[in-house]
Amino acid sequence: MKIAQKILIGLVLTSLLLTACAGNGTNSASKAKDVPVVLAVYATSIEEPWDGVIHAALLKAEAEGRIVYRMQDSIGYQGDMERVLLKKIEKAPPDIVFGDAFGNEEGVRAVAAKYPNIAFVFGSGLGPAEPNLSVFDNWIHEPAYLCGLMAGKMTKTGVVGVVAGFPVAEVNRLVNAFIQGAREVNPGIKVKVNFINSWFDPEAAKNAAEAQIAAGADIIFAERLGAHEAALEHDGVLVFGNMTDQHALAPDVIVTGPVWNMEPTVNYVLNQVAAGVYTAQDLKDFSSMAKGGASLAPFHAWENQLPAELKGLIASRQTEIINGLFRVEINENPPTSD
């Protein structure tokens, strides 16, 4: 229960606050007729950070009165996505459908082709499909690189760990960017990488982190949630979270982490639909630091503990990235342990 409780407290706080303000998306009758209806379908529970980020952005849009929001989560990967989409669209056709197509690509694309007048906007490792299926992904390798710079400077053992989900492109580029940053400032650093083969298994992530700590790692990039639980049980071990500001889960060990913000993507799509000019696109640029779709989580209490020189390095490189003066390498090859 300890991990589950912290997940609910730390990751869904923003969503709960927005829900309290906005309702649960079922009050469409009270909305203006020109407000688009957005349906979101999620393969995992929204407590899982990836889908939770999309959910939070759509809740905010609903709270601002810009959309009517309906959603279903925990659909899974057994072919149910197509069935759920068809049932919901046939019952009450939305204007826009958001969701994650990873593991459900064929089903999502089949439904999108059947309803060409609905805007489909899905997280995907593949390309867009005319006329109506746009794709996005969490292109947050830039702040992952910044975390690597920090890890390379902060490690005392010279060993850092990475606990990740699957060795797929979107994960690999984050892990490789983290390693790039760490080795840039600490060429002799050793990196331990473990894939837990799950998108959401905090216990497995904790166990992987335990093994890395036993191998000497004193800083861990928790690409998947759960590694912080191991850090809490070992003095001197620090963690970088991922996708959301996870500081509240473990303030004493979580320093910062890459944050994904879906608001730029959501806002762009809503504006395109409202103007009647929506087309199928790859929306990855809206997840970049320059567009406001990616950032480092605040340092919170760590602000006064981090060396001024390190904070200066991070601020300088961040500015270079945003201004287009420095480009983080996109390396989607599976990373390996030293």
Short description:
With 338 residues, the chain is α/β, with parallel strands linked by helices.
CATH class of the largest domain: Alpha Beta
How many H/I helical runs?
11
Radius of gyration: 20 Å
Molecular shape: globular
CATH architectural category of the largest domain: 3-Layer(aba) Sandwich
Low-confidence stretches: 1-32
CATH superfamily of the largest domain: Response regulator
* CA-CA gap between termini: 34 Å
Summarize the biggest pleated sheet.
5 strands, parallel
From the 3D structure, determine the CATH topology of the largest domain: Rossmann fold
**Alpha-beta content class:** alpha/beta
**Percentage of residues in strands:** 15-25%
Give the number of domains. Answer: 2
Order of helices and strands: HHEHEHEHEEHEHEHEHEEEHEH
Q: Mean pLDDT score, rounded?
A: 91
Portion of residues within helices: 25-40%
Supply the key terms:
338 residues, alpha/beta, Rossmann fold, 2 domains, five-stranded parallel β-sheet
What report would you give on this structure?
The chain is α/β, with parallel strands linked by helices and 338 residues long. It has two domains: 2-136 and 261-287, Rossmann fold (3-Layer(aba) Sandwich); 141-257 and 297-322, Response regulator (Rossmann fold). It is built from eleven helices and twelve strands. The chain has helices at 2-11, 13-22, 49-63, 80-91, 105-114, 141-154, 169-185, 202-214, 227-231, 263-275, 308-322, and strands at 37-41, 68-72, 96-100, 119-123, 133-136, 159-164, 190-195, 219-222, 238-240, 254-256, 258-260, 294-296. The chain has a five-stranded parallel sheet, sandwiched between helices. Helix 5 links the parallel strand 3 (96-100) and strand 4. Helix 4 (80-91) packs parallel to helix 5 (105-114) and helix 6 runs parallel beside helix 7 (169-185). The longest helix is centred in the middle third of the chain and has 17 residues, at 169-185. Mean pLDDT is 91; it is low at 1-32.
